[in-house]
Write a structure and sequence with these properties.
branched-chain amino acid catabolism; NAD binding; N-(1-d-carboxylethyl)-l-norvaline Dehydrogenase, domain 2; alpha/beta; 6PGD_dom2; HIBADH; 9-stranded mixed β-sheet; Rossmann fold; binds nicotinamide-adenine-dinucleotide
């Protein structure tokens, strides 16, 4: 079993660290927020008074932080203390540029590194069923895989440094666009007097099918587990979808990719958030289209 330092024990990091403890690892944790650190202690994470205390003697360090700037700050501290050959894994969703910079910092400190953002949300973090999309060397991936398996059910090596972040933002851009498309389909169906169930029965088994309709239908009824049946309680909060769409647009701009629907989706989710919906599930955006109509 490994000695692991876990930096950032919030909504995602807390349950992920708890699953590492359950798998028998020795987990030292650090978070800037004292109540968050205290909550992690309840699940068997040993609290550290600062990041370097957690990292000292760790074989593996995992970070799960809000944005690129937090990761670069934390990794600066981590890499000052980490022994050579320590594997440092960032599971946060951040911009590809910061991710690649973090890999370079790790290389300069003679540490192994992996970007390994996740999909599956807080439910997947608690259940240990996350999907990890990883970027980094084959050596770093091989060393990380058994550790990530304690927190997830699918671990994909996407390529070199930053490839995990690239896969995450491309996937979530597709999701943001497809959810808007599905919502528009249901709003049009309502105007045409077509029932939700009838549209679902047809589209979910024909060429309109996609995850946004088949597994996460934005109207109550057809898919009983979707947030639409639960007052649009997240699930996946609209603010996080907006964050990922913005990251996709930054990456599109930097790389010269043309993503007009991604840009439109980012604008629509920005408006939805501005209207006070950032904390609701992202599929609630259907209400904005109904109101617009
Ligand atoms: P969160 O805000 O609940 O947790 C982040 C934690 O990091 C906070 O507790 C904060 O105090 C801590 N922190 C910030 N800077 C720090 C530092 N320098 N050292 C130590 N601790 C520090 O956020 P979250 O929902 O857990 O999300 C974490 C990451 O996971 C984000 O990048 C997010 O985009 C991604 N993500 C979230 C979800 C989700 O459903 N919540 C799903 C997939 C991916």
């Amino acid at each position: 079993m490994a000695r692991i330092a876990f930096i950032g024990l919030g909504n995602m990091g807390g349950p992920m660290a708890a699953n590492l403890v359950k798998a028998g690892h020795d987990v030292l944790g650090f978070d800037l927020a004292a109540p968050v650190l205290k909550a992690a202690e309840q699940s068997g994470v040993k609290p550290a008074s600062h990041a370097s205390q957690a990292v000292k003697d760790a074989e593996i360090v995992i970070s799960m932080l809000p944005q690129g700037r937090h990761v670069l700050t934390a990794w600066t501290d981590i890499l000052q203390t980490a022994a050579q050959d320590t594997l440092v894994i960032d599971c946060s969703t951040i911009d590809v540029e910061s991710s690649r910079k973090a890999h370079e910092m790790a290389k300069a400190a003679s540490c192994l590194s992996l970007d390994a953002p996740v999909s599956g949300g807080t439910g997947g973090a608690s259940a240990g069923t996350l999907t990890f999309m990883a970027g980094g060397s084959a050596e770093a991936f091989a060393k990380a895989k058994p550790i990530l398996e304690a927190m997830g059910k699918k671990i994909v090596h996407c390529g070199e440094a930053g490839a995990g972040q690239a896969a995450k933002i491309c996937n979530n851009m597709i999701l943001g666009i497809s959810m808007i498309g599905v919502c528009e389909g249901f709003v049009l169906a309502e105007k045409l007097g077509l029932s939700h169930q009838a549209l679902f029965d047809v589209a979910s088994t024909s060429s309109g099918q996609c995850w946004a309709i088949n597994s996460y239908c934005p109207v109550p009824g057809p898919v009983p587990t979707s947030p639409a049946n639960n007052g649009y309680k997240p699930g996946f909060a609209a603010a996080l979808m907006l964050k990922d769409l913005r990251l996709s647009q930054e990456a599109a701009l930097a790389s010269g990719a043309s993503t007009p629907l991604g840009a439109e989706a980012a604008q629509l989710f920005a408006l939805f958030e501005k209207l006070g919906n950032g904390g609701r599930d992202f599929s609630a955006i259907i209400e904005m289209f109904r109101e617009k109509a």
